[in-house]
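Notes on consecutive records. When two proteins share a document, each keeps its own sequence and its own token line. Never mix them. Below: protein one.
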Amino acid sequence: MAKSVEIKCPECGWKPDGQPHWQCSCGYIWDTFQTAGRCPACSKQWERTACIPSAGGCTAFPLHLDWYDGLDEWLREELERIRQGAPA
């Protein structure tokens, strides 16, 4: 079984604390990881997510999907289960 997927900055390892640190260009402020990078106010899908220096992170602005550590391994296992016809 794959290790669990963990959300952390791929550059510095900072782990989001569940607080609304991210602001959309429409002005809405939210926790981007609750919506996989989509603004709940205007539905803009953010491709990149900033690390938050004021919350203990760095100044990186990596791809949103890169924050999900272990996602590749989980996806490979799920695809293999599908190929073998096993339940998820």
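Protein two starts on the next line and is unrelated to protein one.
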Amino acid sequence: MRIGASLFLIALGAILDFAVNRHVNGVNLNLIGLILMIVGIIGLVVSLMMMGMRRRTDVVYRREAGAVMEPVDPRY
């Protein structure tokens, strides 16, 4: 789960928990919203930890030696 999906789950859970006033038989929308927020927060924490632990490397592209001609300074 990435950061965007985690934020979406947090927002959807908050809407279900705090903004919806409907009652559905056999379904507790407040509890579903709370569960979605918890899952979103866990996913956000895991995503941020994975981003912090990933290996940072620099990729350097080099041209072939015969393809690059640099001007020669006559002073040297």
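For the record: The chain has a mean pLDDT of 84.
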